From TrEMBL:
<dbReference type="InterPro" id="IPR050982">
    <property type="entry name" value="Auxin_biosynth/cation_transpt"/>
</dbReference>
<dbReference type="Pfam" id="PF13738">
    <property type="entry name" value="Pyr_redox_3"/>
</dbReference>
<dbReference type="GO" id="GO:0050660">
    <property type="term" value="F:flavin adenine dinucleotide binding"/>
</dbReference>
<dbReference type="GO" id="GO:0004497">
    <property type="term" value="F:monooxygenase activity"/>
</dbReference>
<keyword id="KW-0560">Oxidoreductase</keyword>
<dbReference type="InterPro" id="IPR036188">
    <property type="entry name" value="FAD/NAD-bd_sf"/>
</dbReference>
<protein>
    <submittedName>
        <fullName>Pyridine nucleotide-disulphide oxidoreductase</fullName>
    </submittedName>
</protein>
């Protein structure tokens, strides 16, 4: 155990795109900083996506600050291309990332913060939490779920359709993960798609670029106190990527409203209808990974931290980057995180001094 903790101006927890974008801005600030990431290699959540996952925006629209993502062989970059980009980005700017280091706790230490990871600890003047969401998959609580004898898997752990060949598979969730996993599983299995509401399919020509432009318009209007009219369609709505369009042509993009309860071998609706199911894939999203902030008492009942911009209201030397709309419009995307990384570092520089 280190006798006295290592000191640093800014400690960034995480090593995904949000942490790297923040680090790029910190590099220009004159402040000392360090990133701690629990993964063994670079790439953050992209290390854990499914095999066929592709981005829904072209490379130039999927870039973090400084060096843009190199053009992809196809229009939309693959998961492997994103991992390669983030790895090379980190090396190119010689960003100081320690791996694998899982941060257990952030605690107050006078006007500093103490960051603990097992036996190791650091003392920082400011902390940026950029731990994402993938390590906290969310599964809604349906009655009888523990009685269901079949296999259950969250999209966080889904890799490929092969293990489901010939089975009856229920896919729960109406976002992009649900639609994309349904599209490929339905090629080898009989599928049942459950969504709380009818899914919102975007027009075929709408991809991540258009969604980001709309988010930017909303952000600008908000900054200027204007109200604007925009077509319906948010970052969670379904982008009609090629495999999803192909599934539509096979007529499988048909969803049913939620059932009332699980049975041992399937599910049952309130009106008595039932369906036999061998496996369930939960595409029901994620929650922010904020366990390490519990000692500060800043995590609210909804699992988030109260922020103004990205700064914690109840802990002024703590910032949160990249978790979702609550930490900045489109901040949980590659192209969108730059804006909040920049504003976060400007605030840190103003608070600590630097340039
Ligand atoms: P992460 O990538 O999750 O990085 C956080 C890092 O912190 C991870 O390495 C994690 O292991 C680590 N960590 C967590 N807790 C600790 C701890 N206590 N101590 C140390 N380290 C810790 N975005 C787009 O821009 N375009 C797309 O097309 C797109 N498609 C998507 C498709 C899917 C299926 C999903 C799930 C997301 C998609 N996104 C897309 C969204 C987005 O880009 C990701 O969610 C992104 O990974 C968020 O980056 P991050 O750096 O905030 O978090």
């Amino acid at each position: 155990m280190s006798a006295s903790p290592s000191a640093v101006d800014v400690l960034v927890i995480g090593g995904g795109q949000s942490a790297l974008a923040t680090a790029w801005c910190l590099k220009r600030s004159g402040l000392s900083f360090l990133l701690l990431d629990e993964q063994a290699t670079p790439g953050g959540a992209w290390l854990h996506g499914w095999d066929s996952l592709r981005l829904f925006s072209p490379a130039t629209w999927s870039s973090i600050p400084g060096w843009p993502m190199p053009a992809s062989a196809g229009t939309y970059p693959t998961r492997a291309e994103v991992i390669d980009y983030l790895s090379r980005y980190e090396a190119r700017y010689q960003l100081p990332v320690l791996r694998p280091v899982h941060v257990d706790a952030v605690e107050r230490d006078g006007d500093h913060l103490r960051v603990r990871a097992g036996e190791r600890q650091w003392r920082a003047r400011a902390v940026v939490s950029a731990t994402g969401t993938w390590s906290h998959p969310y599964i809604p609580d349906y009655p009888g779920r523990s009685e269901f004898a079949g296999m259950q898997l969250h999209s966080a752990h889904y890799v490929a359709p092969t293990p489901f060949a010939g089975q009856r598979v229920m896919i729960v969730g109406g976002g992009n993960s649900g639609a994309q996993i349904l599209a490929e599983v339905s090629q080898v299995a009989e599928t049942l798609w459950i969504t709380p509401e009818p899914p919102l399919f975007l027009a075929d020509e709408v991809d991540g670029r258009v969604l980001f432009e709309r988010a930017t318009e909303r952000w600008k209007a908000q900054q200027e106190g204007r109200r604007i009219e925009q077509p319906v369609g948010g970052l969670g709505d379904i982008v009609m990527v090629e495999p999803v369009r192909e599934a539509r042509s096979r007529g499988v993009l048909v969803s049913e409203r939620p059932f009332a309860r699980f049975t041992e071998h399937g599910v049952e609706w309130a009106d008595g209808r039932h369906a036999e199911v061998d496996a369930v894939i939960w595409c029901t999203g994620f929650r922010p990974a904020l366990d390490h902030l519990q000692p500060l008492g800043v995590v609210e009942a909804d699992g988030k931290v109260a922020v103004e911009g990205t700064r914690a209201l109840r802990q002024p030397n703590l910032w949160l980057v990249g978790y979702g709309e609550w930490t900045g419009a489109a901040s949980a995307t590659l192209i969108g995180v730059t804006r909040t990384a920049r504003s976060t570092v400007s605030e840190i520089v103003a608070a600590l001094g630097g340039h």
